[in-house]
Amino acid sequence: MQDQPDVQVLRHSAAHLLAQAIKELYPDTQLTIGPATETGFFYDILPTTNFKEEVLEKIEARMREISDRNLVIGHEEVSKDKARELYQGNPFKLEMIDKLDGQTVGLSSQGDFYDLCRGGHVATTGDIKHFKLTNISGSYWRADRDGQALQRISGIAFNTQKELETYERKREEALLYDHRRIGKQLDLFSFHNEGVGFPFFHPKGKTVVNILVDFMRKLQLERNYSEVSTPIILNDELWKRSGHYAHYKENMYFCEIDEKQHAVKPMNCPGAFIIYNNRPRSYRELPLRLSEFGICHRHELSGVLHGLFRARSFLMDDAHIVCTAEQLRSEILGAIRLVELVLKTFGFKNLHIGVSTRPESSMGSDQIWQTATDSLTEALTEAGLDYVIQEGEGAFYGPKIEFVIKDSMDREWQCGTVQVDFFQPENFDLTYVAASGKEERPVIIHRAIYGSLERFFAILLEHYKGHLPYWLAPVQARILTITDDQQEYAQTLLKELKAAGCRVELEESSDPLSGKIKSAQIEKIPWMLIIGKKEQANGTVTLRHNNGKQEFGLSVAALLEKAKDATPEILR
User: Fold this and answer.
1) What CA–CA distance (Å, rounded) separates 302 from 334?
2) Are 18 and 150 within one domain?
3) Are residues 452 and 519 in the same domain?
4) Are 40 and 120 within one domain?
């Protein structure tokens, strides 16, 4: 059996195949870049007239035709002058040529088609067989929203037809349980043109958000966190001082107040530092754990907005732990344990953990970065957790631990971070009076577990396929009467359950029981409490679960005990 090519090499080659098909069908289209991605490939283009979705079928057919030609794929180094001559009508390629180091550039070829390329291809176009174009979206040259608007054609590619079919099956399942679809079906949230990228939470959706916040708030109170709240808009000098202005300016919103430039906060960190610095601090106060459920805003490009997964405003479950260097490892360990507890409560047990190290654009010395990174890895080792090193993927101010979960559809999501920061204490002149009476610098740990609550909410909706567990469901139970004769008993039961803290509704329509059950199942309500003559006479209910399982003759006390067992202990 012939060895299969590296899948990233295959996808890189598929991007060239896509580009060749576009140029053959639409010669006046200008090509820009087309890299491989985690699952496939894309190519950003500037057509003379924007393409519609209908052209994908035509382009894919031409790709298959080129594949059948079995063209040999070659690669050579050519002079920049020759490359400029080849691309004299394409300003995007000319800019790329000018910015490349050296006096030569790589050029791939297949038949009479050529493209700028560093190399790494399959042998022939015939090796690219199992692929599919998936969509057209908007993009910008160099990902700069002030730059030229482009179109992006994306696709997937695999070594075998079985892998392609498996991916498509999972993709169809993901589309079926897309959180935006579930959110609309269950009346949880919506998006509107009056605020593109800004979610509107409906009563039921806000209930879920409140439960998530309440759960985290109680866990944090048990661990001696102190909750704070900081302004959404702050003077831009603050963001310049923190370094966010230099690193996030393109993603920040600005406004003028009293003839001074202000910014809407993209992160919560500086507000916590201002509170810490409001008065002198003693070593006896440390560690000081400041938590904040803070609303942040970031200007994401319209082409990357994706429901709650990528929104322009979001609620962060931030915490900033101020501690001494000696307390650092134990505080990191405590944060790790809290992340584990929260994620396991939601059913995410197999965590993939990465330690992200110093990126190219960063602050501070190598020694400080190494000390911070060692603190993270040593705490993970003490916790008995395996991890991988993710070179260069840390924040500009420090390394971090990233927790990745796998959902019910085998998709991975990054949730939860613990970051060490030696630099902001310098920037904000944070100090504490040590036991010696001298002022010393503390260390900051940035910690988020949900991260964006909106994004975590979306992950949960897709993970549970809309069937949120009893304790998290906005409506936990609905009382269904078989006839109107049971309405009085139903009202009594409703009051009793509400008094016990259950989120319960009464179906008051005169529809047949089968219709009431179907309606509750569509709304994915965990429990249906059915009442007929027998239940009314005995003071009981029949509990029907959303999956059809039934439990007969339950007293109210037994029902409440079941509700208690289905709820995390801290929320009982």
Assistant:
1) 38
2) yes
3) no
4) yes
**Backbone φ and ψ of 535, nearest 5°:** -65, -40
- Among residues 129, 136, 132, which one has the least CA distance to residue 49? 136
Q: What is the predicted pLDDT for the residue at 4?
A: 64
Residue 3 token pair: 């060895």
Residues of the chain with pLDDT under 50: 1-2
Kindly state whether residues 305 and 454 are assigned to the same domain: yes
Is 544:535 a contact under the CB 8 Å cutoff?
no
- State the distance between the two ends of the chain, measured CA to CA, in whole angstroms: 59
Q: Give residue 422's pLDDT.
A: 85
Q: Which domain holds residue 543?
A: 477-571
Q: Considering 133, 149, 173, which residue would you say is the last residue of a domain?
A: 173
| Domain harbouring 482, CATH code | 3.40.50.800
The answer to whether residue 498 is domain-embedded is: yes
CA-to-CA separations, 196 to 312, 313, 431, 455, in angstroms, rounded: 8, 10, 42, 16
In a domain, 399, yes or no: yes
Only one residue has tokens 């004299």, namely 88
d(CA 325, CA 290): 17
Radius of gyration in angstroms for the set of CA atoms belonging to the chain, rounded to a whole number: 28
Considering the domain boundaries, does residue 501 fall inside one?
A: yes
pTM: 0.83
CA distance 449 to 118: 39
Q: What are phi and psi of 52, to 5 degrees?
A: -105, 165
Strand, coil or helix: what is 73?
Answer: strand
Q: Based on the domain organization, do 422 and 510 belong to the same domain?
A: no
Residue closest to 214 by CA, chosen among 272, 286, 309, 293: 293
How many Å apart are CA 529 and CA 543, to the nearest integer? Answer: 5
Q: SS in 3 state form for 378-440?
A: HHHHHCCCCCEEECCCCECCECEEEEEEECCCCCEEEEEEEEEECCHHHHCCCCEECCCCCEE
What is the model's pLDDT at position 5?
Answer: 67
Say whether both 354 and 442 belong to one domain.
Answer: yes
> Same structural domain for residues 195 and 313?
yes
- List the one residue out of 247, 241, 244 whose CA is nearest residue 361: 247
Q: Are 490 and 529 in contact (CB under 8 A)?
A: no
Cβ–Cβ under 8 Å, residues 266 and 318: no
- What pLDDT score does 3 carry? 56
Q: Which of 173, 194, 211 is the last residue of a domain?
A: 173
Number of domains in the chain: 3
Q: Cα-Cα-Cα-Cα dihedral of 38, 43, 44, 46, to 10°?
A: -170
Q: Is 136 in the same domain as 213?
A: no
440-484 pLDDT per residue, tens: 999 999 999 999 999 999 999 999 999 999 999 999 999 999 999
**CATH number reported for the structural domain that contains residue 443 in this entry:** 3.30.930.10
Determine contact, residues 521/544, Cβ cutoff 8 Å.
no
Q: Please report the DSSP string for 506-543 in residue order.
A: E--S---HHHHHHHHHHTT-SEEEEE-HHHHHHTEEEE
The answer to whether position 163 is within a domain reads: yes
